[in-house]
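B., you asked whether I could sanity-check this one before it goes into the benchmark set. Here's the sequence:
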Amino acid sequence: MPARKKTINILIATFLCYVLFFPEHFVHAIVVVTHAVVESIASVLEELLMHGLNLSKFQSQLIVAYFGFGISLYGAYRLCKRLPDIFNHFISYLRHQYSNAVGLLVDHWRQQPLAKKIRSLLICFLGLFIAINTLF
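And here's what the prediction gave me:
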């Protein structure tokens, strides 16, 4: 395997481990980067309004703030309108995945020889017996 591809695989694995084991840090990093981008855009718009239209700093800040507030309200409105569709799509996806998993498990169980089925059931019952005796 070439060194470049190996390095990329290591970076991808590191990123996935970071996302899986530290999701709160990952979400925080995304929020920080998003905030920095939004503040940069707001600063550029503010400077354009101040120098391009000869508005005062206060007026340009008000325009940018209300513009951002309007965009946020519009985004929240669109999200609230789409939320039932997203929820229904997610529920249908989960039902589809559940039916596929059940089908695969049933097929797997049917393909196992009888001795392996009996051994699996004995292990399950033994585990339940030990758990019940431990608890009571």
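One thing to flag: The mean pLDDT is 89. Otherwise nothing jumped out at me.
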